[in-house]
Specification:
By secondary structure, this protein is α+β, with helices and mostly antiparallel strands. It has 5 helices and 4 strands, in the order αββααααββ. A hairpin with a 6-residue loop joins β1 and β2. The structure holds iron/sulfur cluster (SF4) (2 copies). One iron/sulfur cluster binds next to α3.
Length: about 160
């Protein structure tokens, strides 16, 4: 079992069910991320319908094995438009977030899945459940934007 790169110890059990997202501490907010890596995939948005399709074409900084950003702290030097998600901007971003993303699920008033590390107690369960991007991405360096449509992936609802 690999260790969890996200700090999730010493948190109140099921804290996300007891207070609104706007009242979470920084540590609680960060702990909600399941580590799936799907928000680091490129999306295609239909200008007319607003529909968003997720592709398996990954951001240049994503590590396909750990599903983590390789330069998280200084990522904006390389990817200036990478979003810093917060309770304040979730309303405007939730629509494009992956359907299994914990932030989107809670924003929609839904619960977390059993494979979420906060429930399973293990970071690996997101990979075991097949929900993460581990081993399934292609690089945006090798994939011209006109081909992204060929790499659209389906997500669980
Ligand atoms: S999609 Fe959501 S849960 Fe998954 S890595 Fe991104 S922020 Fe975390
Ligand atoms: S810069 Fe890092 S956090 Fe932002 S999308 Fe790319 S891999 Fe993800």
């Amino acid at each position: 079992m690999s260790s969890d790169p996200i700090e999730r110890n010493s948190l109140q059990p099921r804290f996300w069910e007891k207070k609104p997202l706007s009242k979470l501490s920084r540590k609680e907010w960060e702990a909600l991320c399941d580590g799936c890596g799907k928000c680091c995939l490129n999306k295609l948005e239909d200008e007319d319908t607003g529909e968003v399709a997720l592709t398996r074409v990954a951001c240049r900084l994503l590590d396909d094995e750990s599903c983590r950003c390789t330069h998280y702290e200084n990522r904006h030097q390389f990817v200036p438009d990478c979003i810093v998600l917060s309770p304040d901007n979730l309303d405007s971003h939730a629509y494009w977030m992956p359907r299994t993303c914990a932030y989107r699920l809670l924003w929609e008033g839904r619960g977390l899945y059993d494979w979420h590390p906060l429930i399973s107690g293990r970071a690996e369960t997101v990979h075991e459940a097949g929900v993460s991007v581990r081993g399934m991405t292609v690089s945006e360096f090798d994939t011209p934007e006109e081909d992204w449509e060929d790499h659209i992936i389906e997500e669980p609802q």
